Amino acid sequence: MCPLTQVETKVEAPAKQEEEEKSKIIAFARVFSGKLYVGQKLFVLGPKHDPSTVDFTQTEEEILENSEHINVAHISGLFNWMGRNVDVCNNAQAGCIIGIGGIKDVVLNSATLSSSLSCPPFNPLFPDSAPILRVAVEPKILSEMSVLSDGLRKLNQADPCVEITIEKSGEHVIAAAGEVHLRRCLEDLQQRFCQIQLNISEPKVPFRETIILPPKYDVMNELIGGQEKDMMRKWKDDKTKKEKLQQRDDAATNTTETVEITGRKNKDEKIIKLDTANGQATIHVQAVPLPDEVVKLIEENVELIKVLKKEEHKMKEVINRGTTVIQRQPNYEGEQEIVKKEEIDTEANEETIKNLKQFRTELTEKFGHKKLWTNIVEQIWSFGPAGCGPNILVNRTPGYIRPSIWACLQPDLITAGSTGYRENDQSIVTGFQLATISGPLCEEPLHGVCYVILEWSCDEVTTATSPADDVSTVQQGGWNSCDNFGPISGQLISTSKEAMRRAFQLQPQRLMAAMYSCSVQSSAEVLGKVHGVLKRREGQILNEDMREGTNIFTVDALIPISQSFGFVDEIRKKTSGMATPQLSFSHWQIIPFDPFWVPTTEEELSHFGEKADFENPALKYMRQVRRRKGLYVEKTVEHAEKQRTITKNK
User: Fold this and answer.
1) Distance (Å, rounded) from C-alpha 547 to C-alpha 539?
2) Is residue 266's pLDDT more than 60?
3) What residues contact 589, with CB distance under 8 A and at least 6 apart?
């Protein structure tokens, strides 16, 4: 029997070692079959290794060269775990839990070791809680950046729950599951892996931006529309007049870009119409909130959506190749034959295809039978951000029936009823990805938003094939690469992104906060203090049960991550250690306040005042994020004549 182990990297630091190697990477492993011994050669199999794809007629060197999921490792040492210490051993039998040395260069977090390539790998290890809390680190002495990079690599190997990323700005970011986990990671990084002084930023709490259906009740819990708003009507009329005058001035100075807000049948449908810079393309976009059930289903099937994205890309290449051939022989029947003869190299196995079909069926059921969502699953253009997020782009352009993203489920019917891919189709998708990765409120990703492309019209343009054609095309007014506005693909990207952002702003906007699921076990004597701490932290108590036969209560609550800093220390201090909290990421929850809310009704004006001096939590969080990112934050100065100047302070 082949020695078969599943390993997870850990770090053991002996008390006395040489200065150049103060810590050693040891893999934490269990032997499932066979026998391990020092000096043995084993294959390191990745989670995507498939034994059925291995050509055993090739030599071992050829197999290793052609496969991305197979490596070779030599065991340099075996160790018995003895509490805080380790003992060196020569071999290990099946069933032993041991430490393996010498495989740090070929194993990142987890892998399967086997002496045979016919062995199927174990499933990869996934942490129970997703890393949600982020900090940026940098060395105080910039010349020690290489030491920091090496320490971060060791930390990533030692802790399977941490995530190490490098931002576009060059920042090294550590993502941890919570405050205690983050504190431990930073201590290990400074004291064990790097041993240098670090600059650590403030924790970055993530938020999400979304839209909701128009609310029926105001802040005072009064029915909207049932009260007169005479006091604010005059102010609104004046504001509308100013906006119309401003739009006229903009139209007079810039005639290449027009923005219109139109209504169709239903007055609540707010649609944005936006033209490209050269005026050759026009896009009509509408933003609609997705049902909660649909968003949850998409988040649960992210891996399937990634596979669907890859298959759609391959299908698009096949159709584009068929279209290129048909341009020389314009025959519709020939088009069908050529595309059908094209072989599609797919990586999706039968089980994945089955799961995709089930996902499509469940998605159709979750959307329901409302008129707004009629046939929407077949009209999905893309998911976003990153091609697998909880936002969707829908194509409802008249005359443009693009191939469905589900075409990989029926490759023989990829052209049935479709008009093929329109030129610059990918530009709209790219604009959608850019619009969903950073919203207009505070440049945070969007969540649960559906963008519907209601119309996409583009004038016919002439393309140049030679420098002489370039000159003639410019003289005739057509578009080409020498146009002052740039390529039409780039114009469509920026125009579609801007149109989606403006369509988002027409709807009721909300921020979404990341929520911790908090479970507190405490005795009856300190139960009131636990409730007090949760209330100060804006916690929502969901359940409270007493364990049978004891006086121990279990309190289940939700608490915003932004309010969780110092929560564990505070609750232990207030209860003298008689309460034990446990936090884990739960979900994203809408903050029930409009960031731009101002009092309008008579009741709101009488209760909050004309300036609404109460603290709006959504506005507070939005301003905090904008300040952290260096974005513009509006500052209101009142009673400027009462402010003290530098001269008076002297």
Assistant:
1) 22
2) no
3) 512, 513, 515, 558, 560
* Dist. CA 375–CA 373, nearest whole Å: 6
Q: What is the mean pLDDT of residues 316-329?
A: 52
pLDDT tens-digit profile of 104-136? Answer: 778 877 888 888 888 888 877 766 677 888 999
534: Cα separation from own chain's centroid:
29
Please answer whether residues 4 and 51 qualify as being in contact, where contact means their C-beta atoms are separated by less than 8 angstroms.
no
Rounded-to-integer distance, Cα 473 and Cα 476, Å: 5
- Give the range with max mean pLDDT: 154-163, 206-215, 228-237, 420-429: 206-215
Locate 328 and state its tokens.
């020389």
Q: How far is CA 505 from the centre of its chain?
A: 21
Please name the amino acid found at residue 361. Answer: T
Measured distance CA(24)–CA(19) in Å, rounded: 12
Block residue for tokens 């099937």: 301
Query: Cα torsion at 142, 143, 147, 152 (round to 10°)?
Result: 30
Alpha-carbon distance values, 45 to 60, 120, 158 (Å): 14, 8, 19
Distances (CA, A) of 221 to 224, 268, 611: 9, 22, 19
SS3 515: strand
CB 137 within 8 A of CB 198: yes
* Cβ proximity of 30 and 6 under 8 Å: yes
Q: Which two tokens stand for residue 611?
A: 């300036």
- Quote the tokens at residue 582: 């446990």
More confident residue, 421 or 620: 620
More confident residue, 19 or 272: 272
- pLDDT at 480 (0 to 100): 42
Residues in the chain: 650
d(CA 419, CA 400): 6
**In the numeric block, which tokens belong to residue 27?**
């893999």
Dist. CA 537–CA 551, nearest whole Å: 25
Which DSSP letter does residue 349 get?
-
Separation between Cα atoms, residue 559 and residue 205, nearest integer Å: 13
pLDDT at residue 19 above 50? no
Q: Which of 223-232, 254-263, 271-280, 613-622 has the highest mean pLDDT?
A: 271-280
Token pair for residue 579?
A: 């309460």
